[in-house]
Amino acid sequence: MHLLLIGSGGREHAMAWKLAQTPGVTRVSIAPGNPGMLHEDKLTPVAIEATDIESLLDFARNESVHLTIVGPEAPLVAGIVDTFTAQGLRIFGPQKSAAQLEGSKSFAKDFMARNNIPTASYATFSEVAPALEYIHEQGAPIVIKADGLAAGKGVVVAQTEAEACAAVESMLAGQFGEAGAQVVIEGFLAGEEASFIAVVSGRDAMALASSQDHKARDEGDLGPNTGGMGAYSPAPVVTDSVHQHVMRDIVQPTIDALVDEGMPFTGFLYVGLMIDEKNQARVVEYNVRLGDPETQPLMMRLQSDLLALLDHAVDGTLPDAQINWHAGSAIGIVMAAGEYPAGSSQGKPITGIEEAESNGECKVFQAGTRLEADQLVTAGGRVLCVTSAADSLAKAKAQAEAGASSISWDGCRYRRDIGHRAL
């Protein structure tokens, strides 16, 4: 059985590693993949970009691919699922219309408003002057978001009105290109964040284990917002009662509304939550794919068959699926460029991955890497995710930090307090 996984990051490395463990899978092709996948059993990177939909379609058709799984958001927003489905090919992910939940912040906020999904107050602007006026009316703290896809960097949690105004001016001046042609300004939500991800098939949803991402670059949750500096699972803030509340009041109304509005959803629905002191959850954002770096610890904890779960979703038999988790905890520590998130690291030799993995306590998933004359070098902002699972979060954290301390390149950085809220 041959699978095609689209993407090149740490999320895709972890997914491919897990998919290859399914009995009967002979090959997992990853387009375009990364060098970390070259050393994994059954994994084969393929030189096709994630947004080259026609080439991906030809590959899936010519190579008799059983199922295509879409990792990142860009091809989903571009309509890859619609294209594959029209050609009779099996693919896991939402169609273009539903992918707007991530592709456009204003679309998502309007969707939540008309369907009574709990979220922050908001307003949308395409011109600077009225946006600045709104900021002064609302005061700070306040949240500024680029409307479109900005690789996890298009969000500023402004602590002052001046910071908010600067963010609006920068985004509308073209900081993120077309993605920032509109901005969404949201009320600040207090509480603790959590990542709630479900596999969805029409009106059916099956929740994955809870997790918590760390967006701030620096320890103590300080510094600029990033795509994620680490994650752990489970997240204690998602209690059984919170889980039930989120499924009842957020996930189910979301997927029912998508069906009712003619956008039936199949895929991973990621709901970024803010949970207040009364254990009430509100939606910070929707994503239409697995989170990165949440995927890495989730794949470490997942004990049941990932492919079987996805097959059930595509076939419309999700209630028949089984899902089992390691009873302990898992953690992923992102090792990033010193310049991240403002810049990336390019061409710096990376050492120590084999040492980090030598005792079997860590798994290193690659993201921003490339090969230069057989030497692994940096090629991005978030370069690696050092992941570990254990009976307790404290032990998993100690193992992952020991692994990370073995790895180095000129200018690397990582947080040493991932999981601090749970600990």
From TrEMBL:
Cofactor: Mn(2+); Mg(2+)
GO annotation (BP), single: purine nucleobase biosynthetic process
Pfam families given in the database record: GARS_A, GARS_C, GARS_N
Keywords: ATP-binding, Ligase, Manganese, Metal-binding, Nucleotide-binding, Purine biosynthesis
Gene that this polypeptide is encoded by: purD
ATP-grasp domain: residues covered: 109-315
EC top class named in words: ligase
EC numbers on record: 6.3.4.13
Molecular function in Gene Ontology: ATP binding; metal ion binding; phosphoribosylamine-glycine ligase activity
Family: Belongs to the GARS family.
Listed pathway(s): Purine metabolism; IMP biosynthesis via de novo pathway; N(1)-(5-phospho-D-ribosyl)glycinamide from 5-phospho-alpha-D-ribose 1-diphosphate: step 2/2
Reaction catalyzed: 5-phospho-beta-D-ribosylamine + glycine + ATP = N(1)-(5-phospho-beta-D-ribosyl)glycinamide + ADP + phosphate + H(+)
Matches recorded under InterPro entries: ATP-grasp, ATP_grasp_subdomain_1, PreATP-grasp_dom_sf, PRibGlycinamid_synth_ATP-grasp, PRibGlycinamide_synth, PRibGlycinamide_synth_C-dom, PRibGlycinamide_synth_C_sf, PRibGlycinamide_synth_CS
Name of protein: Phosphoribosylamine--glycine ligase
HAMAP family attached to this UniProt entry: GARS (MF_00138)
